[in-house]
Design a protein that fits this description.
Helices cover 36% and strands 13% of the residues. By secondary structure, it is α/β, with parallel strands linked by helices. Helix 18 packs across helix 19. The structure holds zinc ion. Zinc ion binds next to loops.
Length: 445
């Protein structure tokens, strides 16, 4: 059981938030000690576009040549909402590439983040949060005299508001605010209020005030302007009559969530199995609630896998082994429930995008004390939304899209279902086709 995941070197439990400063996702996976070599070759249909490792933009629109490194006395800490990380036209990464004295962390739950705690503990540079609020100090009127640690939350207005509210470690920081003196040049994303600016524009302005040298940070806007121009040019080309003629009839609108269209490495498919008594057996059902006995997961774009059985603590329903297609001995030989949850904690990342079929297994998992990252998709609903018809069971929907024999990624029915889910997530990417850049058309929350 779980042979694939057994020899895994666990990620440090605390290291949930992944520092993105200079470490690519690939390196992060390497740290986890996962055997992903050759995993891509399992999926011949998936060919990622050639992407610049530094700015993470397709090489055709790489802005690295426009980056200038600007040293600062201010320590900048960028806390990026997980949904923002894969926003191709985000600006936090660009800002972190311009600022050697900065750190970019991705996550939502900062209460237990050792990395953040360490950054906030700098006595030489007390921390302040750049965030509009009634008690915020106006930076124009009273800029701090000594160097500070400037914490900046990156995401849509709704997402950052939620993030600050849910994390007292952020909400309790002293706050700084500023009024932009010119309108945003971020013409490719819609902001709910005219005075809102992008993260990099805010930093250009605020660092100018903090460091007492407003002009010095204008260089940060060069890559930003380049990205905006590129994006608008691409859009104009796509919308020109000629390209419309070339692309043939208008494609139906894509209903697949942006996260599933644009993200690869942190898509995480999960399947759980339960020891459950049959519905008609009311007497046993009343006595023995469903309990989790198997949990399998796969990152379909990297090949990393997880599998673990938890030995049933309640009497095993006679129908369970047959339903799960797992023999009784294997179930009884499972790990303890606590071991399963602990091993899982070392596998899962806060910014994983959890994909399941329906909500039964994920709900059972969470009720059993298991941790799941906040961003989750029920692929059944996504598929239904996309095809606009009744899609039936997982097996039926899979049969309607499968073009290759099912690969299994674990023991029994769960392993088969996991292979089907992986195939469905890859099929969503195929359906979305060229829409990798469509984030510029997406209305933000
Ligand atoms: Zn680049």
């Amino acid at each position: 059981m779980g042979a694939q995941s057994r020899h895994r070197t666990p990620l440090a439990a605390q290291q949930r938030a992944i520092s993105e400063a200079d470490v690519g996702r690939a390196a992060a996976q390497k740290r986890g000690g996962c055997a992903t070599t050759g995993a891509m070759s399992e999926f011949p249909g998936f060919e990622p576009r050639s992407v610049c490792q530094r700015c993470r933009r397709p090489e055709s629109v790489c802005y690295c040549a426009y980056l200038t490194r600007i040293p600062t006395k201010t320590r900048v800490v960028l806390l990026q909402h997980p949904r923002e990380r894969d926003m191709a036209i985000g600006t936090a990464r660009m800002a972190s590439l311009c600022l050697p004295n900065s750190e970019l962390l991705v996550g939502f739950d900062w209460e237990n983040s050792e990395a953040l705690k360490r950054l906030l503990a700098d006595q030489e540079r007390p921390a302040s949060l750049l965030y509009p609020s009634p008690e915020a100090v106006d930076l124009q009127a009273a800029p701090p005299k000594e160097p500070i640690t400037l914490v900046v939350v990156d995401g849509t207005w709704a997402n950052t508001k939620k993030m600050v509210r849910s994390n007292p470690v952020l909400a309790n920081l002293p706050k700084l605010a500023f009024r932009p003196t010119r309108p945003s040049e971020y013409r490719i994303r819609r902001e709910p209020k005219a005075q809102f600016v992008s993260t990099i524009e805010a930093l250009t302005y605020v660092l100018g005030l903090l460091e007492g040298d407003p002009g010095r940070f204008d260089a940060m806007l060069r890559p930003f302007r380049q990205m905006v121009d590129n994006q608008l040019t691409c859009k104009a080309e796509r919308c020109s009559p000629r390209s419309r003629y070339k692309s043939g009839p208008k494609q139906p609108r894509c209903h697949i969530p942006i996260e599933l269209r644009t993200t690869s490495s942190n898509v995480l498919c999960v399947v759980g199995e339960a020891n459950a008594w049959p519905c008609r057996d009311l007497e046993h059902r009343a006595q023995f609630p469903d309990e989790l006995v198997q949990w399998v997961a796969l990152r379909p774009f990297t090949g990393e896998r997880f599998e673990c059985f938890a030995a049933p603590r309640l009497p095993l329903s006679p129908s369970t082994p047959a339903h799960l297609n797992v023999d009784e001995a294997t179930l009884h030989a499972g790990e303890s429930h606590a071991t399963l949850l602990d091993r899982w904690k070392h596998f899962v990342h806060d910014d994983d995008i959890v994909c399941s079929w329906g909500r039964y297994a994920t709900t059972l998992f969470v009720q059993s004390g298991g941790y799941l990252p906040p961003l989750r998709f029920d692929l059944r609903l996504v598929a239904k939304d996309q095809v606009k018809r009744n899609i039936g069971t997982l097996e039926q929907y899979y049969a309607s899209i499968a073009t290759e024999p099912t690969q299994t990624f674990g023991t029994g029915r769960a392993g088969v279902r996991l292979g089907q889910l992986a195939c469905i997530t890859r099929d969503f990417r195929r359906v979305a086709g060229e829409s990798l850049d469509d984030d510029l058309d997406t209305t933000r929350e």
